[in-house]
Design goal:
Elements (H helix, E strand, L loop, with lengths): L1 E7 L2 E15 L2 E8 L11 H9 L5 E6 L9 H14 L8 E7 L13 H24 L4 E7 L1 H8 L12 E5 L11 E3 L23 E4 L14 H6 L7 H11 L4
Parallel strand pairs: 3-5, 4-5, 4-6, 6-7, 7-9, 8-9
Antiparallel strand pairs: 1-2, 2-3
Helix pairs in contact: 1-3, 2-6, 3-4
């Protein structure tokens, strides 16, 4: 864990970070940080997130990431790549430096057992509850910050079932869903990828409707058995959600955020 001072415009803030970097876009600096909450944080609790916000200055953008099944704590490699690409599409006003913070969703990301999906279902439910609580804290304590929510695999399902549209004052600027196990090919969300429109999610189908659908993009690749039930190319699920496959989603999310920077 490293404590680092990060300059954003004329204001200096102190972030607890794991990774820090800066991207120059449109003659401005985008300062990227990854939040690491104190080790005392209880699983499924956002208490320490609220404490962090109370003691530190809010960034301009929060990128909330929900990792996939069995991935190590953090946001996982696919979402890390999506986040890096997202930064390159941000367009703050001329001469305006902004801060972007990643919040890795704290949830089990557990796998079910053969013939018994209860552990997986419990993990999804825990993640959905944690996500709702986290977004509510971010929106209430950093009202001016923009919020992007992204999930890969089980993390995408967590977002799909969290019912984020009904959080009251909480505002989600954009959602990125990769390899969604409850993918609906013909719902109102934006789509990217070469998916077969006749195949949906492995676990079921959960539509995202209303105003939030217009701020959501889903990426599903043909052959991925998780978002294309009946397919068998598991290597597509594990290996192909990187690089150019993520460009449309990252650009979409940045375009939703840019008018408010």
């Amino acid at each position: 864990m490293v404590e680092s001072g990060v300059a954003t415009g004329d204001k200096r803030t102190s972030f607890w970070i794991a990774i820090a970097g800066a991207v120059v876009v449109a003659a401005a600096i985008v300062v990227a940080v990854v939040l690491v909450l104190p080790q005392s944080a209880e699983p499924g609790s956002v208490t320490d997130l609220g404490v962090w916000i109370e003691t530190e200055s809010c960034p301009n953008v929060f990128f909330v990431g929900a990792r996939g099944t069995d991935q190590d704590p953090g946001i996982g490699p696919q979402l890390s790549d999506a986040y890096s690409i997202f930064l390159t599409f941000l367009r703050p006003g001329p001469g305006r430096d902004i801060g972007v913070a990643v919040y890795p969703l704290d949830y089990p990301a557990a796998r079910g057992r053969f013939g018994d999906s209860s552990k997986y279902e419990e993990s999804v439910a825990a993640g959905a509850g944690e996500l709702r609580a986290a977004v509510d804290v971010l929106a209430s304590q950093c009202a001016a910050a923009r919020i992007v929510v992204a999930g890969y695999s089980q993390g995408a399902q967590v977002i799909s079932v969290a019912d984020l549209a009904n959080l009251g004052e909480a505002t989600i600027d954009a959602m990125i869903l990769l390899a969604n196990p409850v993918f609906v090919p013909d719902d109102a969300t934006e789509k990217a990828g070469d998916f077969n429109p006749d195949q949906g999610g492995l676990v079921g189908r959960v539509s995202i409707d209303g105003e939030l659908a217009g701020r959501t993009i889903q990426v599903c690749l043909r052959g991925d058995p998780v978002c294309q039930s009946g397919s068998l190319a598991i290597w597509v699920h594990s290996n192909d959600y990187f690089g150019s496959a993520l460009d449309p989603a990252a650009e979409f999310a940045a375009n939703e955020v840019n008018p408010n920077l």
